[in-house]
Amino acid sequence: MSADLTELYQQVILDHNKRPRNRGKLPTANRVAHGDNPTCGDQCSVYLRLETVLGQPDRIAEISFDGSGCAISQASASLMTTQVKGKTAPEVQALYKSFHEIVTTGNAPEEISDLAAFAGVHAFPARIKCATLGWHAAIEALKSDPLVTPTTTETHHD
């Protein structure tokens, strides 16, 4: 990998760590899952709002994440939210498979774009869990049962 490409990739990770996209609890979420990496203390919750259009598979209409951890875990979760918005569960699974290939082998196909920034993670096997934490939480959120919207009951006291 050229020095210019390595520097570009590092900039992508640093940018997403310093200025995370889609960070915070999503008030309209109808799916949520939490990921935890006890080895290093990284934590990540992913909030999704799936939208069903008649006859079409559910798509991620909105997504956000919240949590704490190292730059790799936080930048990866941020970048993941930008990549999976608008996608269906099978599309997210396919994208995760490509991302997992990148972080475990260092091989990044051209069409993967910014996700290739994480190719260097393969040289640090302990960090692979950091990079994939948010992705695992998103996939679990897609599989989870819809959140029950709490209903409020008004009582009148005369």
Architecture overview:
By secondary structure, the protein is α+β, with helices and mostly antiparallel strands. It has a single domain, classed as Sufe protein. Chain: A, CATH 3.90.1010.10. The chain contains four helices and three strands. A three-stranded antiparallel β-sheet has the order 1-2-3. A hairpin with a 7-residue loop joins strand 2 and strand 3. The longest helix is centred in the middle third of the chain and has 17 residues. It is globular, with a radius of gyration of 17 Å. The C terminus is likely disordered.
Unreliable spans: 150-158
β content, as a range?
15-25%
Strand order, biggest sheet? 1-2-3
Number of strands: 3
Short description:
With 158 residues, this protein is of the alpha+beta class. It has a single domain, classed as Sufe protein. Chain: A (Alpha-Beta Complex), CATH 3.90.1010.
